[in-house]
Design goal:
homodimer; alpha+beta; Arc Repressor Mutant, subunit A; Chorismate lyase; 2 domains; 26% helix; DNA-binding
Chain lengths: 269, 269
DNA sequence: CTAGTTCGAATGTCTAGACAAATGAAGCAC
DNA sequence: GTGCTTCATTTGTCTAGACATTCGAACTAG
């Protein structure tokens, strides 16, 4: 425990294995963040583990403290570690780790839940939309949108009815693709370079119509979960407008929230 | 337009009005972030506005570049501005601004939506909970939890039924407070120092029971939105377990999502 | 007019220090 | 023991620079 000793003998920690390449194209702070990130993901650094002091890590990596802090602040933002003045840097307990609210397609969502997603195409129309839809997409009078109606299945069973709308201007020729087989988001990204960046969802509960009951094979006295989703691209332009009707007995939406650390925007009345 | 001119004369920008106090207890970078943040909130800096170069702002504020970047990176994380190498720093368009998924109590949620929240206490019990609840709170055999049933109203109309459960150990004497008048979260924070840090919600659609219909004054053929919420504190300990049953015709949940910028944790299957 | 080049300007990354402030433990007085 | 003080440790904040990288505009050659 004498400082004269610890400076001469290198303590072996999980960090000893980290090697950084100062000449690599990825910046040093990212290399370190990723390295520590995978130590966290693999469980080598369990929740509650106290990281070595910054100055020790700096010496070990041969970098300056500001660079190390750039890495740790990244992980701190993600909620994976927690630094406290006078105490140290501690690995966060899993429950508090930020579970990012993701922009996910139906297929991705189902796969994330461990199911097998499928689709049956009901209709694919190219039509001049009603006023609210036209306004959302900021279209001129006669511009058209694709309206794609599908039954979405999980493990072979009907789970949801989906009506996706997307302007023709963004993806001309969309009807050529087999939307029963492939994910709409995949087609949009691969063939048109369109990527969703943000979305707003409004989740409500409704009594199903008789047509919905039939298409979903709904038992009596079952409600449906309706999700209206607005999707935007990186350039803030609207991308997609979707209404999904889920079987209430087989699906529920999961939302993760965390107190935001930022002191900005405290505009609560 | 001549650089020789602009160096001698100070260009007047919205940033000229920002004054920082180097001796204040709030760090400089926070002062600047907040100042720019309110310029953004007030609309003085409209979307698309290009901020002056970092070096110019540094000189104006009399600070070093790293300190300024600490401020702008905060705002960048929040999605309020967007810095691009070789280009500059631009104010983000409003649609892409991160709308943080907040941990909110019923009262806060209703107020955020511009309504007046109210409560009617139905019952407040102190009981030994069933196994699933006991497991969630990690309680021993005979430890009790408060079970608080309330009708939650918006603008005088019943909107939801809420059953909140919280361990007695965390807040002994909770029954002394007037939970019809004050928010449970406020009591927990002010009188017991308990603060929710994160929560997980599961949102589902159900057909109401006849009792729920009566208490909520539900019209026929109306579904209810059921939200089961698990709340945790900063130390990862469970704080509260709540089941809320909302009128489906008057309430829908709003969820905002954004693609995360981090390259970490890309563990998609 | 077009395509390629050059170059200035802007942010990105990094350094090697400095002092401040919070924390918790050890020691001390009682 | 109990409560207070002291102190070493640790992260938080900040500086004044350096060079790298990217972008787009202006210029040039054809």
């Amino acid at each position: 425990m004498d400082s004269a000793v610890t400076t001469s003998t290198q303590t072996i920690t999980p960090f000893s294995s980290i090697r950084i390449d100062k000449d690599a194209s990825t910046p040093i702070y990212l290399q370190i963040a990723e390295a520590i990130g995978s130590l966290l993901a693999s469980g080598v650094l369990p929740p509650g583990y106290v990281l070595p002091p910054e100055r020790v890590l700096c010496e070990q990596f041969g970098i300056s403290r500001m660079t190390l802090r750039q890495a740790t602040s990244l992980l701190d933002r993600e909620g994976l570690i927690n630094s406290r003045r006078g105490v140290g840097t501690v690995v966060t307990h899993s429950r508090l780790r930020k579970q990012q609210q993701e922009v996910r397609s139906f297929s991705e969502e189902i796969r994330a839940r461990g199911g097998r997603p499928e689709s049956r195409l009901i209709s694919l129309d190219l039509a001049v939309p009603a006023a609210p839809v036209r306004d959302f997409f900021e279209l001129h009078d006669q511009q058209k949108v694709y309206e794609i109606q599908r039954v979405r299945l999980k493990d072979g069973e009907p789970l949801a009815l989906e009506l996706a709308r997307i302007p023709e201007r963004l993806c001309p020729g969309l009807e050529r693709f087999d939307l029963a087989r492939s994910s709409l988001y995949e087609v949009l990204e691969r063939s048109y370079g369109l990527r969703p960046e943000a979305c707003n969802e409004e989740i409500s509960a409704e009594i199903p119509t008789s047509q919905q009951r039939k298409l979903l094979g709904l038992p009596a006295r079952t409600a449906v979960l309706v999700i209206n989703r607005k999707t935007y691209m990186e350039n803030e332009r609207p991308l997609e407008l979707t209404r999904s009707v889920f079987r209430g007995d087989r699906y529920s939406a999961i939302v993760h929230s965390r107190k935001s650390k930022s002191i900005l925007q405290t505009t609560s009345s």
